[in-house]
Amino acid sequence: MNEHVHETADLTKNQTLVMGALTRSKGPLSAYTILDQLRDNGFRAPLQVYRALDKLVEFGLVHRLESLNAFVACRHPGCDGDDTIAFMICERCGQVNEITDTALAMRLKQLAGEASFALKKTTIELRGICRTCQVA
Amino acid sequence: MNEHVHETADLTKNQTLVMGALTRSKGPLSAYTILDQLRDNGFRAPLQVYRALDKLVEFGLVHRLESLNAFVACRHPGCDGDDTIAFMICERCGQVNEITDTALAMRLKQLAGEASFALKKTTIELRGICRTCQVA
DNA sequence: GTATGTGACGTTATCTCATTACAAGATTGC
DNA sequence: GCAATCTTGTAATGAGATAACGTCACATAC
Ligand SMILES: [Zn+2]
Ligand SMILES: [Zn+2]
Ligand SMILES: [Zn+2]
Ligand SMILES: [Zn+2]
Based on the domain organization, do B68 and B83 belong to the same domain? Predict the structure, then answer.
């Protein structure tokens, strides 16, 4: 099996529970919100959530939103190979849209190159109001 | 005077102190680090720092780095009119470089437009190793 | 089989980051 | 003066994240 593809079967019990909570949620969740949701499943301490989240982020199944201190399940199948993901976060409904754009990624890499900056990770988060919330 | 330009004279005592701490620093500072540095100036509580920071960010004199939960003095004179700023953050020395790029900003606006997303604020933070730290 | 290593797990305590709530001064406009 | 507004001071609390410790299950080596 491809070592980079992680399916449900690969996940531990705690990882599966955390992944489930994020998948069920419409928007991003904080670690403590996840903890509260999983109390009935035996979760008692933040570390149980953070440890699972670390792995899920490492697997690429979950993304961390820096501007929200929250986590969201990846809903963008093609993002696996792409390390330059942009998030559009609606400040009204909380929904998050994940997009990858070649031109955007290229330009960022170029800017980093011009500065001789060894790029490791990019964070792009757009805050605003989504289409649905604008008409409402 | 231009209402968008804030000089030292416009700042209150606390705002001036916080601005000074950030200007003196080589890299970004957390709110609590600033608090510690200003204890001798009468600072006693986090809120004194956060209130000043809120205003300084509002004035455009200071930027918040979401991925660090820290603040940095603006060292990019041209960034005032531009709301699409990218930060290059060196993970070794901590120094932050601030850049604005028209092509980057345009592409982001275009992507938002295509999704009918009413863009309010963009966060772009690049993590990596700066030129100086690579050779060292 | 036993030793050893590794990874996940549980628990407590602690640390860092940020805000709420309330009161007291200072400033401005009338 | 007086009200409105802004800034400040202080205490308490909420929210996010990690350190340090020990335990358990399982795989591999001998
Ligand atoms: Zn994704
Ligand atoms: Zn929305
Ligand atoms: Zn700036
Ligand atoms: Zn550096």
Answer: no
Question: How many residues in chain B?
Answer: 136
Encoded tokens for A86: 């942009």
Quick: pLDDT tens for B75-107. 987 777 678 999 999 999 999 999 999 999 999
List pLDDT tens digits, range A3-45.
445 555 589 999 999 999 999 999 999 999 999 999 999 999 9
Same domain, A7 and A61: yes
What's the CATH code of the domain at B44? 1.10.10.10
* One-letter identity of residue B48: Q
B46 CA to D13 C1' distance (Å): 13
CATH number of the domain that residue A89 is part of: 3.30.1490.190
Q: How far apart are CA A96 and CA A87, in angstroms?
A: 6
**What residue type is assigned to position B122 of the chain?**
T
> What residues of chain B score a pLDDT lower than 70?
1-9, 81
Which domain covers residue B127, as residue numbers? 79-135
Residues 2-61 on B with a CB inside 8 Å of A are none
Q: How far is ligand 3, taken at its centre, from the CA of residue B123, in Å?
A: 12
Give the pairing of strands B85-90 and B96-100.
antiparallel
Identify the CA nearest to B49 among candidates B71, B25, B80, B27. B71
Of A91, A97, A117, the CB nearest to B115: A97
pTM exceeds 0.85, yes or no:
yes
User: How many residue pairs bridge chain A and chain B with CB atoms within 8 Å of each other?
Assistant: 117
